Amino acid sequence: MAMVPAIAIAIAIFYFSSQPAVQSTATSDGVTRLLLAIADRLHLLELQSVDVPAVCAFLSMPVRKCAHITEYTVFCLSLIFGLRAWGLRGKQLLRAALALTFFYACTDEFHQLFVTGRAGRFSDVLIDSSGAALIRVLAPMFWRHGNESGQPNRPVQT
């Protein structure tokens, strides 16, 4: 049961990756429009003075890449949760989660070779895996020095 969240996220990633490029772009534009509407409501910009289609076109790639980094970071975290239930700890846990995230990103890019208007690129694998790599680097900072059990640091009681 511990791997259910990771499987659910993998299915969601596969679903979004199965969208043809036109549909994927429309989704990205919808997210950008939502962010612009939020900025307008917070009075960070005046939406009436913004060329929304131009902003959507300009932000399309950054929004997409940030979404990929975020979904694969969450995927990696869900793998860490599942793999801990299977007994993995410490560096072994982090390496396994990173390797599985990287492997899934590779299979996702291969899958996109068969989706209309999409392409499989190794650079996208690296972008997708960057959040997992960041977790791999930063997680030990939150664990006790030399703690191979993978338990988070507890605040020191004074």
UniProtKB/TrEMBL annotation:
This is VanZ family protein. It comes from the Bacteria. Keywords: Signal. InterPro entries: Phosphotransbutyrylase, VanZ-like. The lineage of its organism: Bacteria, Bacillati, Bacillota, Clostridia, Lachnospirales. It comes from Ventrimonas faecis. Residues 1-21 form the signal peptide. Residues 5-141 form the VanZ-like domain.
